[in-house]
Design a protein that fits this description.
It catalyses: a primary alcohol + NADP(+) = an aldehyde + NADPH + H(+). Belongs to the zinc-containing alcohol dehydrogenase family. Its cofactor is Zn(2+). By secondary structure, the protein is α/β, with parallel strands linked by helices. A hairpin with an 8-residue loop joins strand 1 and strand 2. It is globular. The protein contains 11 helices and 17 strands.
């Protein structure tokens, strides 16, 4: 019989999240049952719960930054045992047959990955996420959390961490490379930490200097305000890699102009309006404009191991479930440094 667990649920775009109960399936042979300890709040949760992306299937339990402890395993599970520290990120299944899936890039599954929430699983049932006491996930879509990271600060790594780690690794951030992170928020602060640990020379490009002390503390070598027009002049042809973490329509000609020969600007933010990319700014220095989206399961595990090795966790503010709606408003107002994490014992 399915198990009933406490959760916080969004019932409509204009309604606050509220306490409820949901059912979790009995574990299948390859399933892992996870008692959730912490769940991070991602801006994607807010967009979904408030119907801002236009495709929310209410009611829905958000949350795809999940950290907890294995409480039971299916009869054929080999990867995990009861008591293991584990995490679940943005998806809980994929077709497993297409070339991206076979290559370990399940996030780019040609048939579409199965989201941790606001999706439909193989049984035709809606998926519900981490704002709950427990979740049941196929072992192949679960990652182990090393002992070197607290579960609370590990939770945001399952989205924010891998979202930055994947492009930094793909575009070879490391010694001798100059990397700029646009925005020092929930995503950007992880980019600074990870790029610094990889050995790159790291610059933060932020609208103002109000977070400069934080940026330097987190590992940035340089910090510039993009509200100062001299920034774009002084940093022309400067960077091998620029990663944009803000969901705003930036003046791309100015940002592309900061790329060195063969440099790449990677877009992670999802602005409301289409991005205008001026052709001359790209062609002039054989520059590239690219995008990236989270990471596959193997790469997510690699990221967690890397973070444990380098003592990296997310900068967090832990809250009780009763403060979820308040936290949503604070995220929208950029009033968090840098990630809210829900203590699910309060559900």
């Amino acid at each position: 019989m399915p198990t009933t667990v406490n959760a916080y649920i969004a019932t409509a775009a204009d309604a606050p999240l509220e306490p409820a109960t949901i059912e979790r399936r009995d574990p299948k042979p390859h399933d892992v049952v996870i008692d959730i300890a912490y769940a991070g709040i991602c801006h994607s949760d807010i967009h979904t719960a408030r119907g801002e992306w236009g495709r929310t299937a209410f009611p829905v339990v958000p949350g795809h930054e999940i950290a907890g402890i294995v409480s039971a395993v299916g009869s054929e599970v080999t990867r995990y045992s009861v008591g293991d520290r584990v995490g679940v990120g943005c998806f809980v299944d994929s077709c497993r047959e297409c070339e991206p899936c076979k290559a370990g890039d399940e996030q780019y599954c040609e048939r579409g990955m199965t989201g941790t929430y606001n999706a439909v699983d193989r049984d035709g049932e809606p998926t519900h996420g981490g704002y709950s006491k427990a979740i049941v996930v196929d072992e192949n879509y679960v990652c182990g959390i090393p002992e070197g990271i607290g579960l609370d600060e590990a939770a945001p790594l399952l989205c924010a961490g891998i979202t930055l780690y994947s492009p930094l690794r793909h575009w070879n951030a490391g010694p001798g490379k100059k990397v700029a992170i646009v925005g020092l928020g929930g995503l950007g602060h992880m980019g600074v930490k990870i790029a610094h640990a990889m050995g790159a020379e790291v610059t933060v490009l932020s609208q103002s200097l109000k977070k400069m002390e934080d940026g330097l503390r987190l590992g940035a070598d340089h910090y510039y305000a993009t509200s100062d027009p001299d920034t774009f002049t002084n940093l022309r042809n400067e960077f091998d890699l620029i990663i944009n973490t803000v969901s705003a329509n930036l003046p791309m000609q100015k940002y592309l102009g900061m790329l060195a020969l063969n440099g790449t600007l990677v877009e992670l933010g999802l602005p409301e309006h289409p991005i205008e990319v001026p052709a001359f700014a790209v062609a002039a220095n054989r520059r590239s404009f690219a995008g990236s989206m989270i990471g596959g399961i193997a790469e997510t595990q690699e990221m967690l191991d890397f973070c444990a090795e380098h003592g990296i966790g997310s900068e967090i503010e832990v809250i009780g479930a009763e403060k979820i709606n308040e936290a949503y408003d604070r995220v929208v107002a950029s009033d968090v440094r840098y990630r809210f994490v829900i203590d699910t014992s309060t559900l």
